[in-house]
Write a structure and sequence with these properties.
The chain has 11 helices and 7 strands. With 277 residues, it is an alpha/beta fold.
Amino acid sequence: MTKDVVVVIGAGGIGQAIARRQGVGKIILLADRNADGLQKAASDLTAASYVVVSHLVDVTSRASVRALAQAAAKEGRVMQVVNTAGLSPNMAPVDKVLEVDLYGSAVVFEEFGEVIAEGGAGLIISSMAGHMMRPLPQEDEEQLAHVPADELLALRCLQPGAIPNSMVAYMVAKRANFLRVQAEAVKWGQKGARVNAISPGIVVTPLAAHELNSEIGHVYRAMVEASAAKRMAPPDEIAVAASFLLGPDAGFVTGSDLLIDGGVVAAMRSGRLPTPQ
């Protein structure tokens, strides 16, 4: 009997939480660029009785993502694809942030759009940062949404003069994520599949710990304090929302972005927090 496959790109805290929630009775194809982290996550899931296949992937390489998509299709029906891969603004320079968070995301949409099964669903874990900025000029937004992935990084709106630092690169990439989701929803819909985004706030993961312990950690702590929830989220809280968007109860939801930030962006809109420049 052909099994259903859940592809999870990114073996970090959110990726593992989603894999645990979505992987029961299915094949989990867990992918990451970090071999050691991937092996540890796959071993932990296997020890908990999940069926796991691990696969190295570099989302900035189309050939690598295509190989992952083909491997997934060989395992069974590709019913769910979750992309959690990303770099924070404090982890990399402008070019790498754009390459991973923007180009890599677009490549995953394109390659897995070729193998997703009818009735399947895709999901990208983006960021509340995409909601912190105002809309870009209409021409730029249309290009970020529709230009083929391999042409994205050459766009005028992504050149050094327009992207002065990694924080701006991160916000633009995350805004582009849900612009892309809207465009891809039309293409995936032709195969009877859906695609959505989640934009989390501060989630308790190693990446968040890196940011909190960095020289801009005070900015993150201020966000928590000013938010309505006044706390960070565990990865499992994001997995609950992912389960809804990936499952049958969200059959009418596609091309959408769900902001799960405890009210950080609301605090910015109300003037309780400065908007990043």
